[in-house]
Each structure stands twice: as C-alpha cells, then as structure tokens.
Specification:
The protein is an alpha/beta fold. It is 41% helix and 16% strand. A six-stranded parallel sheet has the order 8-7-9-10-6-11, with helices on both faces. Helix 3 crosses helix 4 (88-98). The longest helix is centred in the N-terminal third of the chain and has 19 residues, at 63-81. The chain is elongated and about 65 Å long. The protein starts with 14 loop residues before the first strand and ends with a helix.
Length: 335
Amino acid sequence: MGNTASPPAPGPDSLHETAVEFPDNKLLIDLCGEYDRNLAEIERVLGVQIVRRGNLLSVLGEEAPAAEATGVLNALYARLEGGKDVDFADVDRELRMGADDEATGGLDGDQLEMFKGGAVEIRTRKKLVEPRTDAQKAYVQSLYAHELVFGIGPAGTGKTYLAVAVGVNMFIEGHVDRIILARPAVEAGEKLGYLPGDMKEKVDPYMQPLYDALNDFLPGKQLAKLIEEKRIEIAPLAFMRGRTLSNAFVVLDEAQNATSMQMKMFLTRLGEGSRMVVTGDRTQIDLPRGVPSGLSDAERLLGSIPQISFNYFTSRDVVRHPLVAAIIEAYEADG
C-alpha cells in the first residue's frame, strides 16, 4: 500500500474515517486482491487511504471520497458473498459505475426500472454470464423482452457478446430452433479478393469474433455439430437476402457497416417466433465515403416505434482492460 501514488493529503480538518467490518477473513483476502492491488486501485482513484486492521478496513480521506470508497468495498464484498469472483475489471467497474448517478448513461425510465430488480444472469452450457453495468443489465432485459433490439456504443461494451449469450440461452431452453449470426463483409483496409482460399476461407476472418463468442458458451464438439447441422449459422450479411428467418435468434454485428438497403433487407427478414438483435458502433464506419450507414438510418426511422428497443452504451460500460475506456474517452473528447 505504501507504493501507491496518492494526491496531496487533505487538511486535517477535512479528514473523515470510516471503519467497515468484513466477517469472513477468506473473502476479505479476495476483496483486497493479490498484494492488496484492489485496495491500491481504490486508493489511487479516489484519493483515500485504506488501512487493514484484522477484519476491519479503515478508510481515511475527505468525506465524499471516503464514503464512495466504502460503498465500493461493500459492493465488492457483497459480490464475493454471492459466490462470485472479484477481479480487477470488477474493481474498475465499481469505481466507474457504483456511486455515480451518471452511470445510468442513456437509459430511459423504463430501462432503469428493469435492472433495479437485482442480478441479471444468462446461463449457457459452459458458463454463467453476468452483465456488469446497469446499461448491460437493461440491454439483456431488452433482449428477452423485445423481438427487435438495437445495441449501439463503443467497442468492449459487451453488445455482441451478451446478445450471443442470450441467443445461446434461448436456444438451449428451446425458445428458438436456431441461431443466425451475420456481419457485413466490409473491407476495412484489406481486400477480400487477395486473401487465399475459397469464399468461406476468405470470409471466416471477418466472422471470427462471432466464433469466439460461441466458443465461450458451447462445448467445442457440440458447437461444431450444430454448425454442421446448420442449427447455428455464421454468414456475411449478403447471405440473408431472400430468406425469411422464423423461430431463430438472429444477430447482425458491426451494423454500422451495413448500407441503408442492406439494413432494410435484414430487418425485413424477421419471421414468426424470431428475435433480432442489431449491434454497432457509429464511430467505426468503414463504408466508402458518401455511403450512408444503415445503422444511422435505422435509428432515425425506427426510433419512435415502441416495440423496438434502442440501447446505448458509453465508455463507462467498457468491460475489457480499464485502459480501453480511457482510450475511447480520449478519442471521444477529440471528436
């Protein structure tokens, strides 16, 4: 703890000390993290000092940061009591989201009510998936509640990952008969024609993030069998033309790279008993100059239809390395 770089100490009159008792010593060790790295991060971000005395953690600092640090510690300990792990990303999430009213981002009143019910979890064959931020919880609730859902925001916010997890859950629960994952095969600096192999081998690198997500949720042999049986399809967006997608969970990823015509074509594939999810990042459009993004058009044209759910994410919802959030914020500030 002594190696932690801290802001200048506040004046003695403004110091506030709060002692919090954590009865389970093993959970307290997990809360502190290896070499107390979790405590050190809370100290660094909030400008407080945390001292451990047996099963007590004393937080010393100005009143507001000390109260926030106490709230973060209690939230992380409650997570451990619930049988879940606490890693560095969880600490970062609580620091960015836990005590900040602005953490609700672009959520509307109905969405705020949706996640106030508590934990939201998605069961798959390989793991239990837990949305980490309020916006992610509301998004997952929307995926179960609506037939057509948009997830819009920067990379690393879990838009596609959570959509695929819900799709796998609905598939193994028997709510849909198949999963269809699509992406526009837009060349972001590379030329498809110059890649080796047949069309599948040319296109598969564009689809790899979707394979990666599926591999997280389904055993390898089962996934291969389902793909062979075409109960799970991963294909370029153009392959959707002329089809009616019934009793399926359908995800369009990287939708900012779909043209307006492609987006209309995709959305009108929705068939009986199906769910459709459209994810994208408006800051990463790779379409040729002058070609409008179908995602932007869909927002403009469909935003007033109550049966369609639009969900928005910000850098606060990034659940990759904490540095990713800082990078996104820097680019947003420059834009």
